[in-house]
Amino acid sequence: MNQTTALSPEQNQPFQRMMANAQGINAGAVAIESERAIAEARGQMQLAKMFPRDLNAAYAELMDACKLPALAEVAFYNVPQGGSKVSGPSIRLAEEVARVYGNFEFGHRELSRVEATPDAFGRSEIEVYAWDKEKNNRSIRQITVLHVLDTKDGPRRLRDQKDIDNKIANVASKQARGRILALMPKWFVEAAVQQCKRTLAGNNELPLSERIRRMTQAFAPYGVTAEHLEHHLGHPLDQTLSDELVDLTGIFNALKEGAKPSEYFQIAESADTTGAELTQQARQAAQLTDQTQQQQQQTLKAEPQQRARRAATVKKAETEAQPEQQQQQQELTPPADENQHAAAEPAQEQGEQQQPQAAQTDVF
Q1: In terms of pTM, does the model score above 0.90?
Q2: I want to staple 137 with a disulfide (CB 3.0 to 4.6 A). Which of 132, 194, 202, 341 is the partner?
Q3: What is the pLDDT of residues 205-244, one digit of tens each?
Q4: What does residue 83 show for φ and ψ, rounded to 5 degrees?
Q5: Per-residue pLDDT tens over the stretch 35-44
Q6: Smallest Cα–Cα separation from 200: which of 67, 97, 95, 92?
Q7: How many domains are contained in the chain?
Q8: Domain extent at residue 105
Q9: Using CA atoms, how far apart are residues 55 and 100, in angstroms rounded to an integer?
């Protein structure tokens, strides 16, 4: 006779039993957090069903956005890979597509982190995801991000929390592009790409020659000259077509993201200037400017004090010189009594001379 033994709830749920036995983990807190996440996801899906997207309105809004030069200029990327160049819609265009599509969520979360040791770099395990809430489609990828920055002098360890977060966000944004485009309708993305190309090619008030000149000036801070651009295109800049300008725009966006000019042009690696290095140079220049301004402000604040000290010194010197000046004046000026006596004598003589005249007048 077969006997059946009733299993306890913990035996029926081996995952919870494993989590409860793990050291340093509160099984109750894990269960509460799981229930909260499930309830939140269910609520978001219900809202997406209550307010479904309108593809016609989303398409019209996307076309209006792609007509703006501000979006079209950053809508493409161009990176070298395996001896050739790979181009396509950039993360900025993917973000705009996801925004107008509606009921869509994307991002990344850090799953774990290992601090650096003397023998190894630090690293973080992150999960990049995109989620179509209305159709409940998800695209997820987990990657490892090393806490290191590639420079001309070799890899540099990242120790500051801000630098590590920036590195993780930079890597995650590039991976999010693929996750977003994987869930988007292909015709929707292609329409945005073509509209951005038309914006760059023709829907611009500036002539093509002026836009090429501006593009040449934009490449100059990275050490890329007109000769480098002509060698890359295979013809003089005056013969550049609108499609080639789109390709140069993608390369310029890649340089801003930190790519090396030597990956696209025949430039010595020692002359490479990446976007990160330009940013660092700009920060250093700004710091020098701030220090100069602070010194000027301190000088301006000190000038009134210096003037006051100089005025006090002059006043003190004048005060000390006053007794000597008074003594000199007293020596040069005769006594007042002598002056009065000298002035009184002529007056007396005049009075004596006038008295007989007055008597004669009285007689007549």
Answers
A1: no
A2: 132
A3: 667 777 788 888 888 888 888 888 888 888 888 888 877 8
A4: 85, -5
A5: 888 888 889 8
A6: 67
A7: 2
A8: 53-204
A9: 9
